[in-house]
Amino acid sequence: MNNVPPLPPVPVPVQTQVDEYGFHVPIKKEVRGSVASDFASSPSSKAKSTVADSNSSLAGITRSKSLRYSLKGLPRSDTGEGSMGFGRKLSRALSLKISNSNGSISPAGPVIPIDPAIIEKEKTWLRVLDAGDLKNPQNIKQVKKLCREGIPGSLRGRVWIALTQQKHLRDHELYQSLMEKQKAMDSIEIFDVIERDVARCYPQHVMFIDKDGDGINNLRNILRTYALYNPVLGYTQGMGFIVGMLLMHIPNPEDAFWVLVSMLEGVCKGFYESDLKRVRMDAKVFDMLVKNMDPRLAKYFEANQIDGLMYIPQWFLTIFTSTLPWPSVLRIWDMFLCEGSKALFRMGLAVLQTCKQHLLTKCPTTSEALSYILHIPQDDAKFSPEPLSKAMMRIRLRSRNLEKIRQIVEENGI
């Protein structure tokens, strides 16, 4: 008689639903006497898992020279003006639409009553947008306050376009020329690298879950077109998360492309260069800020041999998309595009202050501490937008002081 081994159990497929941000998450199941959390598959944890995937760890970017590629000597087309493509239909349609206060994608489902507070916030933003330049000295104080409170999801893409002031960079003819050129080109090394990374960007989001869908194609095309637009920078791992986030809120690929260009020449300048000098410097600046603001936490990090280079690259290069709960990710993006890198430092310090008690009492080892810092609990209310925003506001950090510290770090090679 043959001893036939038993067949392995058939895995039970996990049932999912689309959350308010467009991510597939497990359906919460009722358990006898309690409710199971099933919260492990939050949006940030999906982004986080893709970052931690083999050969794609952003923490490893600081050590790898092979992740960034360049295209040199490619000619640019003649310049030409493009149009913004955004009308004023939204203001006329406010009374007819369902408002989504957090994200830009709402799954099909029952009609949700409109929150009057959100309507008022939308009307305020429409008035601000109609006033013109958001970063004009007459407007910036109000705009900064509104961004810190969170931009309504219905207007987030339009506000991001206005905040990045990309209108002066737009060149429709150049964009079309480069877009067609990259589509016609044979596969080259940098395109192969982009192709591998595209599949890792938000794989559970409805926009990118179909590998042959418009979302993935737009993500790929924008990254490839940018590699031709800026052959010196080319492509660096982490840029896909930025483009993916933009496409979730800016449906027009050309608009998203020019916002990317503006970000990489403005608030993110130097982030993705081959030697990652900017990110390395920011990590050292962050270490100095921790020492000045919280000596006890700094002493804990020193005892565990933890420095900013172990977590700042993942935080800053993805602008926290791989770390924080998604509502908080959206909030930091709103502030970052308005205030620049100061917002990243304040958010980072606020996260550490929120983590502090857990780190000091429950993370005696380096690995436990880093695991907690890089994988923030997605269902912990302490890391939701309002508590983190309040923690940020308690941190006094001026842009000129930040630049002074940067200068000290650069001059002394700290």
TrEMBL record:
Residues 150-340 form the Rab-GAP TBC domain. PROSITE patterns: TBC_RABGAP. Residues 38-57 are annotated as: Disordered. It holds the Pfam family RabGAP-TBC. One of its GO terms (molecular function) is GTPase activator activity. Residues 38-52 have a biased composition (Low complexity). SMART domains: TBC. InterPro entries: Rab-GAP-TBC_dom (IPR000195), Rab-GAP_TBC_sf (IPR035969), Rab_GAP_TBC_domain (IPR050302). Coiled coil: none annotated. Transmembrane segments: none annotated. It comes from Rhizoclosmatium globosum. This is TBC-domain-containing protein. It comes from the Eukaryota. Gene3D superfamilies: putative rabgap domain of human tbc1 domain family member 14 like domains, Ypt/Rab-GAP domain of gyp1p, domain 1, Ypt/Rab-GAP domain of gyp1p, domain 3.
